[in-house]
Amino acid sequence: MSEFNYKEELTKIPLDPGVYRYFDETGEVIYVGKAKSLRSRVSSYFLKSNQHDRKTKRLVSQIRRIEYTIVHSEWDALLLENQLIKQLQPKFNILLKDDKTYPFICVTQERFPRVYVTRNLDRTKGTFYGPFASLRTMHTLLDMFKSLYTIRSCQLPLSQSNIEAGKFKVCLEFHIGNCKGPCEGLQDEDEYNAEIEQVHNILKGNLSLPQQYFKEKMLKAAEQMEFEKAHSWKTKIESLSNFQSKATVTNPKIGNIDVLTIVSDEEAAYLNFMKIKEGYMVATQTVEVKKKLDESDAEILALMIVEMRSKFGAEAKELISNIKPDLEMRLELTVPQIGDKKKLLDMSMKNVMYFRRDKAERREVEASATSSKKDRILIRLKSDLQLKTLPRHIECFDNSNIQGTNPVAAMVCFKDGKPSKKDYRHFNIKTVIGPNDFASMNEVVGRRYLRLIAEEQPLPDLIVVDGGKGQLGAACDALKSLGIYGQVPIIGIAKRLEEIYFPEDSLPLYIDKKSESLKLIQQIRDEAHRFGITFHRDKRSKASLISELDGVDGVGKVTATKLLKFFGSVRNIRESSLEQLAGLVGVDRAKKVRAYFDAMADNAE
């Protein structure tokens, strides 16, 4: 087929806004684009070819025919472009697919409606909410519905004639209080539909209406002296308020708003979408979009505004983002600098940055799929803690003092994910009087790294402190005094909820409880605790023995210490012969020590 005569074609293209389509020699659509001025945009492909990248030059070389559709505005062009890309899937376009992999919550249209999860989007069956990119959020909603309402879970056709004919019997759900038995006509249909209406409101983000409904029910029950019912309604209000407090991401007075942020690299763009209704996050999703023609962030954002709002049924009149495309839109697009909207923007940006970093780490993991298990865990740990290097050398500190006696500390060392016991260290607390975990942590961390610096030994890749913000802060102060704060990553792990704390960050990180990286941190922490407790017990035993022998006539602390140092343990002293003792402390003292242990043995019998 002959070369495409673009000069003749360009003269026929109007200046109006619209959508253009490029065809190759087989008649297949290879690219769909939008434009504020069709002629100007299409001409740029052919008249500025020396400015194009390799991929765009390849596209232009395959164009053999151009078609276009004129629309009223650039916004209409954007809508049409979105639909055509999904319909035609041109090979040079960013792929936009009708994603049916995420589940929806369906509220059916039948008599006594059901609420269930499905991936089959059949609008004839009821009202669908979603898609839910976070299964945790979806199940939280379902669990809340179960605690607030008595919605049936069966699939019985509950027509009035079927119920009146007595075709059905109540099941276990009725007997355990999860259902009121509409299948036997035991629940009023209007009462059931009122609860379903509350479910619709919650899924739409209108939490104030269910709260008002419960409040009215509670007050009515109280007026009728039905205090148990009133308390039940109060419990439901508290449950809904608790959910709202966790789900509210900003000031409820902010109204309805959408958020879409974008960051990118050479290969892909990463976007986070949040649908906010009265301060409550109704839906959110973070996606990766592979680039095809080195598209700009503004171009990708414009296309994804339509895609994400259509996907989640967003109707807000305002959208906030980190960039503002040069595009006439039917909604207000802002880049906030201060206030609650800026907080929303920052939260969305934080999500998209973490997502991009996680994608990069996943690619790193895939690239090292043939590596050993230890490397896989360390790569995962590096990703979870956002470390710059692989934590092959980890050191963990733990304090031990029981009822304030014999304060000691322990440090364990893991290399390549395995214990390096030759590098374990015990510490007797020297500068702290009494039980003070923070001061003790400051002392031992300072002593450990002062020595490493003095001996010109390498610092670890990660320091773990057994404890929360207090212990972590004390350890950080020690690093600051040595001038190495910021050179070595340091975290604290709190025992109660296994929270990970970072310096100067008040909010903890929660790693998935099933994550191999968290299990490694727990293993290191538990090993430090075991090592410290063992040392503490030995020290208490020795202190106790010295104290006891100090009471034996003619045997003082010097003699007791000498015995412990030589024999190593109380058990070895107890089992030693008179001759062995005499060779160390003399016959007279040996007899007294031997008599002391023999008397203990007689008493035990």
From TrEMBL:
Q: Where is the UvrC family homology region profile domain?
A: 288-479
PROSITE patterns (alphabetical) = GIY_YIG, UVRC
Q: Which InterPro entries match?
A: GIY-YIG_endonuc (IPR000305), GIY-YIG_endonuc_sf (IPR035901), GIY-YIG_UvrC_Cho (IPR047296), RuvA_2-like (IPR010994), UVR_dom_sf (IPR036876), UvrABC_protein_C (IPR050066), UvrC (IPR004791), UvrC_RNase_H_dom (IPR001162)
An example Gene Ontology cellular component term from the record? excinuclease repair complex
Cite the entry's keywords alphabetically.
Cytoplasm, DNA damage, DNA excision, DNA repair, Excision nuclease, SOS response
Domain GIY-YIG spans what residues? Answer: 15-94
UniProt GO BP:
nucleotide-excision repair; SOS response
Query: Cellular location of this protein?
Result: Cytoplasm
Leader sequence residues: none
**Per its UniProt entry, which superkingdom is the organism in?**
Bacteria
Q: How does it assemble?
A: Interacts with UvrB in an incision complex.
Briefly, what is this protein's role? The UvrABC repair system catalyzes the recognition and processing of DNA lesions. UvrC both incises the 5' and 3' sides of the lesion. The N-terminal half is responsible for the 3' incision and the C-terminal half is responsible for the 5' incision.
What family does the database annotate? Belongs to the UvrC family.
**PANTHER family the record matches:** UVRABC SYSTEM PROTEIN C (PTHR30562:SF1), UVRC/OXIDOREDUCTASE (PTHR30562)
Q: What is this protein called?
A: UvrABC system protein C
| Gene source species | Dyadobacter psychrophilus
